[in-house]
Write a structure and sequence with these properties.
This protein is 59% helix and 0% strand. By secondary structure, it is mostly helical. The termini are far apart.
Length: 209
């Protein structure tokens, strides 16, 4: 059973404030693939940089949206150039270009290129988490964060989604990109990440001593 789960966002305008750039956020709200690629890019770069990447990529591909079939079939070297052209789409543009292509090739092979098909018929949060963890470039933590983003902001809420998302699914939390709804919450999430990083560093130092 699926509770309060939107099968498609096409009938409902979703407003996001993750990239902190209106056009980039508009794309994230209407394009499941853009949101998924933004999550993939959210690694070792500021969150707003990662989630503005899909919009920049679409522009460089001469489109107002992203297509998994087109990306999957793109010449690898030419696709890498789309990432490395200044300003680069990521701190590690070459490796991330490869990961994005691998993700799209997987979507084409398993879901006919439809990113939303990953969650459209997932009956439970646990099932959806399993599907997300199977995506290239999505480890356990990234899968949980994206699941939380889907539930909190994109109206994808299969039964048990909060539990499956772990701490990232908690209501009122400021742990991840799933909780960013504007500049203030972005600052809170960033502060939480810095505190967690400092705590982990202190714990590691204490263990050594």
């Amino acid at each position: 059973m699926i509770e309060d789960m939107t099968q498609s966002n096409k009938s409902k305008a979703i407003t996001l404030r993750i990239a902190q750039q209106p056009e980039a956020d508009e794309l994230l709200g209407r394009s499941p693939l853009a949101a998924m690629i933004g999550m993939l890019l959210d690694q070792q770069v500021p969150m707003e940089w990662a989630f503005s990447g899909p919009f920049t990529l679409a522009q460089r591909m001469g489109s107002d949206d992203l297509d998994a079939h087109e990306i999957a079939a793109y010449d690898p070297e030419a696709f890498t150039e789309l990432f490395t052209a200044k300003p680069a789409l990521h701190r590690y543009p070459g490796s991330m270009a490869k990961r994005v292509q691998q993700l799209c090739q997987f979507l084409v092979a398993e879901y006919d290129g439809d990113a939303s098909a990953v969650w459209s018929d997932a009956g439970t949060g646990a099932e959806l988490l399993k599907r997300l963890k199977a995506l290239p470039g999505f480890g356990a933590q990234k899968a949980q964060i994206f699941l939380a983003l889907l539930g909190k902001q994109l109206d994808v809420r299969p039964t048990g989604w909060r539990a499956a998302a772990g701490p990232y699914g908690e209501a009122g939390s400021h742990r991840s990109v799933a909780d960013i709804t504007g500049p203030d919450s972005l600052a809170e999430v960033r502060a939480h990440k810095q505190e967690a990083k400092a705590a982990a560093k202190a714990a590691a130092a204490a263990k050594k001593s």
